[in-house]
Design goal:
The complex is a heterodimer of chains A (about 170) and B (about 110). Chain A is mainly β and about 170 residues long. Chain A contains one helix and nine strands. Chain A has one domain. Chain A has an eight-stranded antiparallel sheet with strand order 2-3-4-5-6-7-8-9, with no helix packed on it. In chain A, strand 8 and strand 9 form a beta hairpin. Chain B is an alpha+beta fold. Chain B contains three helices and six strands, in the order αββααββββ. In chain B, the strands form two sheets. Chain B has a three-stranded antiparallel sheet, covered by helices on one side. Chain B is globular and about 30 Å long. The chains are: A mainly beta (about 170), B alpha+beta (about 110). The interface between A and B is large, with 31 and 50 residues. Strand 1 of chain A pairs antiparallel with strand 6 of chain B.
Chain lengths: ~170, ~110
């Protein structure tokens, strides 16, 4: 069998930590004849664990980092339910939505769980419930936001600012 | 060898997909039996096409980060040792676990 390179990129993104790569990598179907590599990059620090979704998608001879989103966050390694930092945990499910006659499926990220309180005031030192749904479509080599309803978590803020999300 | 954070890299091939990483430790989970298979041979072939070289015994390639990726450290300067990290044929599904390392992820589709 003779191979030819259809698309390549030696440096698509960074992932992993402490010299180790991410361990959660899957080949996923993103269209009737399209596939992507889904990486869940888990990072830990100061008692907080954050998981970031990365989608690597072949596009016009190269490979794009077509989406990066925080899909889980908790502070289980730091929280103290007896008066310290409240314990929270939230996650997003990642669902590609098959449709007829499309080259690439839409993507839904559904948020649920709890998050840190919005205010640091003593009276509000309880976790808040968070729920939300973001829908994205594939456009020009990237997954871009179509709509978003519901909450953002406090760690989403950086992503929201970077991508000018609403 | 340069520090891990500057030399780790990964590559991915589709039809056959491969993630490759660049640490000093063994990074693939291929069993000895697998390494003798046609599949392993094809990984080697793919790595050689992607990076221009591949040491079958060490299961590594040597490469530099592309200079145009200015946001990456030491782009075009330091050599990385690249190891196959993840591969999948286009019909495959499910997760693939693998070992060490690599902040830098590359990918190729064949």
């Amino acid at each position: 069998m003779k191979w030819t390179i259809d698309a390549s990129n030696r440096a698509v993104t960074f992932a992993g930590e402490w010299g180790r790569p991410p361990t959660d990598i899957q080949l996923v179907q993103i269209g009737p004849n399209r596939r992507a590599v889904k990486v869940i990059d888990v990072g830990q620090g100061n008692g907080e664990t954050t998981a970031v979704l990365q989608l690597l998608i072949p596009w016009n001879g190269t490979v794009n980092l077509s989406l990066e989103r925080i899909v889980a966050d908790d502070d289980k390694g730091l929280c103290d339910s007896s008066g310290g930092l409240p314990c929270y945990a939230n996650r997003r499910t990642v669902t590609f939505v098959p449709k007829d006659k499309v080259e690439y499926y839409d993507l839904e990220l559904k948020l649920s769980g709890t998050d840190l309180p919005v205010s640091d005031a003593a009276a509000s030192r309880r976790v808040r419930k968070v729920n939300g749904l973001e829908t994205l479509k594939f456009e020009n080599g990237k997954y871009v936001q179509i709509s978003r309803q519901g909450d953002l978590t406090y760690v989403d803020d950086a992503v929201a600012k970077r991508e000018d999300l609403k | 060898m340069v520090p891990l954070r500057t030399k780790c890299s990964s590559a991915l091939l589709a039809a056959v997909l491969i993630f490759a990483s660049g640490c000093h430790k063994q990074s693939t989970e291929l069993s000895p039996e697998q390494s003798e298979t046609k599949e392993a041979f094809e990984i080697a072939q793919a790595m050689k096409m992607f990076y221009g070289n591949y040491d079958v015994k060490k299961q590594t390639s040597v490469a530099s980060l592309p200079k145009e990726k200015s946001s990456f450290p030491a782009a075009g300067e330091e050599q990385m040792t690249v190891r196959p990290l993840f591969h999948a044929f286009s019909g495959d599904a499910g997760a693939h676990n693998f070992l060490p390392c690599a902040p830098t992820i590359g990918m190729a589709v064949f």
